[in-house]
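User: I'm putting together a teaching handout on how sequence relates to shape, and I'd like one worked example. Could you take NAD kinase from Cytobacillus purgationiresistens, show the sequence you're using, and then write out its predicted structure as tokens right after it?

Assistant: Happy to. First the sequence, then the structure tokens directly below it.
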Amino acid sequence: MRFAITSKGDSKSNTLMHKMKSYLLDFNLIYDEEQPDIVISVGGDGTLLYAFHRYSSRLDKTAFVGVHTGHLGFYADWVPEEIEKLVIAIAKTPFQVVEYPLLEVIVRYQNGGRETRYLALNESTVKAVNGTFVMDVEIRGQHFERFRGDGLCLSTPSGSTAYNKALGGAILHPSLPAIQLAEMASINNKVFRTVGSPLVLPGHHACLLKPVNEPDFKITIDHLSLLHKDVKSIQFRVADEKIRFARFRPFPFWKRVHDSFVAD
Ligand code: NAD
């Protein structure tokens, strides 16, 4: 089996990365940064987000597992003291795989029918570059509302515990093939009105954002932030692709939520 390891880059994560690499080579696994069957991310959730984007072109062939060197992560749930156990489990393949849904984002531009497609593991946010953010929101081909405010956040179920949670969104179990639309500081008064609640859309419902005036936006895809000019529309839906996590022991999602947000 071929493996790769990505590190957060700090000395603790790098030391752990070198240790795991040497243990796994001792078990006759092959180190292959280009075509790994398993990617071990050492650091935090941010390190796993980076690993996901690095290997997003081979999601059907690569499984991910995360070790955290800081606080408990949602994707990075192994502690440094457990790496010997983890290495033995990886070496004893085949391993169990759990799949989580992803968000597909398609940005279409005004000139020439050009479009760009992205996959997000956590979320995509859209904000104005200048002035108030104004967008027409369509759901499943029907006009839903004209949103005015700071921006909108579309998240995956596993990303629902990240930015979405800070916006008052619900936490969704990652076994649900759905996406969630959450508002960022909407303007609501006698003139302007939005629904005001987060919406959860099933796999067969797309959400389309159409600029009303200003066509330039700051769009984030997980930790990546890009300026998009002359935007015609932005479409969000549950992606056909999924992320595959290698599972070597049970760590139920609701326990992770409890341990991260309620108490250890
Ligand atoms: P970062 O390392 O500063 O991460 C921010 C925090 O988000 C970290 O504590 C990380 O553990 C946590 N996190 C990431 N994914 C999570 C998840 N699925 N569930 C629960 N917590 C999660 O920044 P980064 O590495 O660039 O990470 C980018 C992420 O930061 C974005 O995907 C977004 O979700 C998050 N973010 C959150 C806020 C907010 O809560 N107000 C604002 C901006 C970005």
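A couple of points you could highlight for students: The longest strand covers residues 231-247. Residues 141 and 247 are 38 Å apart (CA to CA).
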